[in-house]
């Protein structure tokens, strides 16, 4: 164990790394001799670089840094340091059903959560999913996660969601939503405003957004919710350009009514026309691309974008290594396919590994308005730092192309150390402070409860959906209903359960 009284260590070889118990909050910490992907404005990469963390912030980035007496020194030789990754859209509550919907279509997802079983989730089930997802995020080096929390049927559910986030030392943004009501309904409830006032103080550790979708109903019933968001100063995050669900009409309505702002986040933004992309670009909003999701749920082909997200662990993974890899693969496969259609050959890939590492870090920070806080390794920023290092892995050398190594070679098991806001939350591949035992216990209770609610037949059918003989619904993803007979929208203020109409 290195003594706190050891002299300052300028220019020396790295000391033996400290034990986890030596990394006490408040003690300065230096990572020595890594390949440092700063993701600063110039994307500088340092070889043999150090990063010094002091208090909540990055104090210095450089080579052979002089550090204060008593600084804990972590030998990062052979590893890569990068900013904490940022997931701009994840339905954390759904992590309690991890992997259940691996073979779903988007329609089956909507039917299961929106129409059939989403209502069965109690506050403690939201808590369970969020707790596990939050631990999963920091374990994978995702230091900031937007919890796109659209299962908040009551404020008790919302309190449970925040309780779980508050127990895990990551940076989170609660994006409040409720798929069981129109956004003009839940956002008008006095207890919603009370909740916002009670639980959010403007801390950069817990942000707030409003999460709802714009269906394209020409009456634009979502207007009231946008007005409340504006009044609360809350950014709106919305699933946009989801094939068969949301489209250009929603974007046009938002734009015409003045609700597209630089803080707005457009999740997927996949099947939109050039006109909609122009409206997004002109108003400064950001896209959140969930490539694993778009590839398998069919929202449309992901566009080139600025931030990455995982969507939901009921289908896919929850780590941004997968997001970077699938985004490169999807973009390149489309590029090749389109070229072959013209009898041409792609000779240069236009999307680079460096681009997706940028989207997973500083791109996410910019999308969330946190670019002065996190997203790069620069002195003065909050210390959200990830060390990728795994001496037991044959995949960690040679380390020739750092961006390529992060995007195509590394994986979550290679995350050695994670620092959030200056605090070490994972060290030597193990979460500091535990939490997994509790998460396992509450998730088991939720799974047991849901299995009992569904019964064995529906539980099995939900996981192994068969191709139906009859068409289920054209679009279950609506707050208001399109009546084909009268060719009119109906509802728009009704809280009737759409399931009862089907
Ligand atoms: Zn989503």
What report would you give on this structure?
- Helix 3 packs parallel to helix 5 and helix 11 crosses helix 12.
- Strand 18 and strand 19 form a beta hairpin.
- It is built from 14 helices and 19 strands.
- The protein is α/β, with parallel strands linked by helices and 502 residues long.
- The strands form 3 sheets. Strands 1, 2, 3, 4, 5, 14, 15, 16 and 17 form a 9-stranded mixed sheet that branches. It has an 8-stranded parallel sheet with strand order 6-7-8-9-10-11-12-13.
- The protein is 34% helix and 19% strand.
- The structure holds zinc ion.
- Zinc ion binds next to loops.
Could you list some keywords that capture this structure?
502 residues; alpha/beta; nine-stranded mixed beta sheet; eight-stranded parallel beta sheet; 14 helices; 19 strands; 34% helix; 19% strand; globular; disordered N terminus; disordered C terminus; binds zinc ion
